[in-house]
């Protein structure tokens, strides 16, 4: 069986100021230089204001950079917005779209998310599409719920597009612990089956993820989307090592 590459992402949300972000980015760059496992991809999503620093600090490394949001138009009179071509020009490879916080706090709708996905793909960015269920439910119902959201969001793109499906149970975001290993494995299995016709899809789990989780869930997902538990770069290093180990067991 071919070995699946693993992928780990980190979003810094709005937790750190510019200086603290710079320190964190340097620490991640040092860690990557001394041993980012060859079979693991890493992407980092700082705030818009730190994208330029991230591009400089990760230049020549295997760490990819992403943005936390994007507007759906490419250019024009849209005060305060950032377009996909601007992100591509700023060195972004990834763009996060549809995070639960953006849906809840900023009123993002399925239609807006779908237009953002289209814009990202049009500009050659890889969307990190965040999808999750509001409450714990039977795995088959979670899969149906998430796939309905996914179908709307991706209605305008080809199935050959490269997309990261960031499954984030809303109830597990900002919590003390992630969803249980059994729950993650059951939902991930269903999502993988439902996504079988998307050859370039990578499925990652987010929601209070940190060290120890991949050891429990093995290769149920392609990787993790980390938040708070990657602020400590030693914790991130441990997650990357676990990602590499779980690749080996899936071979
Ligand atoms: O976006 C997330 C990961 O980057 C997600 O919301 C999880 O955040 P966390 O609860 O701080 O792990």
UniProtKB/TrEMBL annotation:
Keyword Cytoplasm: yes
Gene3D superfamilies xref list: Aldolase class I (3.20.20.70)
Main location: cytoplasm
UniProt entry keywords in alphabetical sequence: Cytoplasm, Gluconeogenesis, Glycolysis, Isomerase
EC number: 5.3.1.1
Coiled-coil residue spans: none
Entry's Gene Ontology molecular function annotations: triose-phosphate isomerase activity
Record text on subunit structure and interactions: Homodimer.
Family: Belongs to the triosephosphate isomerase family.
Protein name as catalogued: Triosephosphate isomerase
Organism annotation: Lichenicola cladoniae
